[in-house]
Amino acid sequence: MALAKKHSKEDVLHHLRHAILTQELQPGADLDEARLSEEWHLSRTPLREVLRQLAGEGFVEIRANRGARVAEMSHKTLRDFFLAAPMIYGAILRLAAQNATAPQIADLKAAQTAFKTALRGGDIAARALANNHFHDVTGRMAGNVYLLPSFQRLLIDHARISMTFFRPQDAEMAENLNAASDQHDAIIAAIEAGNDDAAADLAIAHWNLSRDRIEQFVMPAGLDLQLGTGTAPE
Amino acid sequence: MALAKKHSKEDVLHHLRHAILTQELQPGADLDEARLSEEWHLSRTPLREVLRQLAGEGFVEIRANRGARVAEMSHKTLRDFFLAAPMIYGAILRLAAQNATAPQIADLKAAQTAFKTALRGGDIAARALANNHFHDVTGRMAGNVYLLPSFQRLLIDHARISMTFFRPQDAEMAENLNAASDQHDAIIAAIEAGNDDAAADLAIAHWNLSRDRIEQFVMPAGLDLQLGTGTAPE
DNA sequence: ATATCTATCATTGCATACAATTTGTGTACA
DNA sequence: TGTACACAAATTGTATGCAATGATAGATAT
């Protein structure tokens, strides 16, 4: 897996980021320096620096003398998330519509194409990563150094939350995803037209859709069975 | 200066943060690993980790194979700053008013007392640090993990911009500072009363005041002399 | 005189060895 | 049986030496 000698530090960074975004490494998972350094054929010194950098980006948390763990997610996290997301994302998309350059718009379209491909492909992790990349591009379009740090953290947990709350069997959820894809298309159109009001509105709508998806999961319709009986009531 | 063996890593962190906030270390200044490690009696390994951590917090920038520098500030920075600040800070103060606990309010009052003392003391750097601490406390009151990263970056450059654009001789600027102090008092009152609308409004007003102070500096009234003559016109 | 190539120097990056801290386990004693 | 203490093991933190990379200056050729 990890034989390339040259950029192995970057490789670890990318791998860990992906693994955390896709929940291959779950929140709270222990990141052992010694194990990782063996696994990636890298000494502990640069590996510790990688973990420090990931901590700065919000992927992991480091406690003194107690090592690194994948950043936790709690109930409070969800609330904080949906409180902050519409505002930050609205601002990002508004600025993106104002400032996007032609090559950036090309990037965004490519990201959306990849997202649609991933949608058809059915690999949940690939979807989450593609979606993450789409939004990441909008962040760079906005180009505001003060907004970016919060936005990036939102994107991390957006991916993780999606992975947590996604039920592949559910038809309603599939429909929801198609709606999300359509919104991406609308977002691209608004940005390309430089219509910042429309872009900001779409941001809100997009996050509301996410919220609906999660509400479906957190507060499902009650099971139509009584515990311990194994038969439907009445 | 640095003889305590025990927490020297933390010491370096604090020192560098302060030095950067007060512009003792100016934007773009080179941070040499070897020099710092001698100066603080610490080997290069932990010192590099300190620099990595500061990079994550937005104090410094690291370029591969080319070392660390104090984070730059450009013209664009100022624009980005005043674009993002009212929104983020408004949100922070709104949440602070909703969520502040009694001990946090006590902290905030203590911070404001210290700020007033610093105002009278006349040490510009001390003022900037005291002001920074006041706002930092409001950030913790808000307690939203997604908003905090952007807020902290705003605070870093708020301190640095203040240090850059402050003219101690100017009477108008002294008056402006008193107004800022009064706003701090009003902010405390709004938070203590749990009045989130008022807190959010005060946030906007507070940043507008900052903007006025900087506009005075960036766009001063033209000098009443003609270049090259040495005499007043007319 | 200018430009380019090369050799040397300074600085950063990585690996290994060692020290310190924390965690886990066993045992003695109430 | 439960608690406290002490020792052992595992893991993190730090120091130092060496390798690799980028900057600088000098020499040579055009």
TrEMBL record, chains A, B:
<protein>
    <submittedName>
        <fullName>DNA-binding GntR family transcriptional regulator</fullName>
    </submittedName>
</protein>
<feature type="domain" description="HTH gntR-type">
    <location>
        <begin position="6"/>
        <end position="73"/>
    </location>
</feature>
<keyword id="KW-0804">Transcription</keyword>
<dbReference type="Pfam" id="PF07729">
    <property type="entry name" value="FCD"/>
</dbReference>
<dbReference type="GO" id="GO:0003700">
    <property type="term" value="F:DNA-binding transcription factor activity"/>
</dbReference>
<dbReference type="InterPro" id="IPR008920">
    <property type="entry name" value="TF_FadR/GntR_C"/>
</dbReference>
<keyword id="KW-0805">Transcription regulation</keyword>
<dbReference type="Pfam" id="PF00392">
    <property type="entry name" value="GntR"/>
</dbReference>
<dbReference type="InterPro" id="IPR036390">
    <property type="entry name" value="WH_DNA-bd_sf"/>
</dbReference>
<dbReference type="InterPro" id="IPR000524">
    <property type="entry name" value="Tscrpt_reg_HTH_GntR"/>
</dbReference>
<dbReference type="GO" id="GO:0003677">
    <property type="term" value="F:DNA binding"/>
</dbReference>
<dbReference type="InterPro" id="IPR036388">
    <property type="entry name" value="WH-like_DNA-bd_sf"/>
</dbReference>
<dbReference type="InterPro" id="IPR011711">
    <property type="entry name" value="GntR_C"/>
</dbReference>
<keyword id="KW-0238">DNA-binding</keyword>
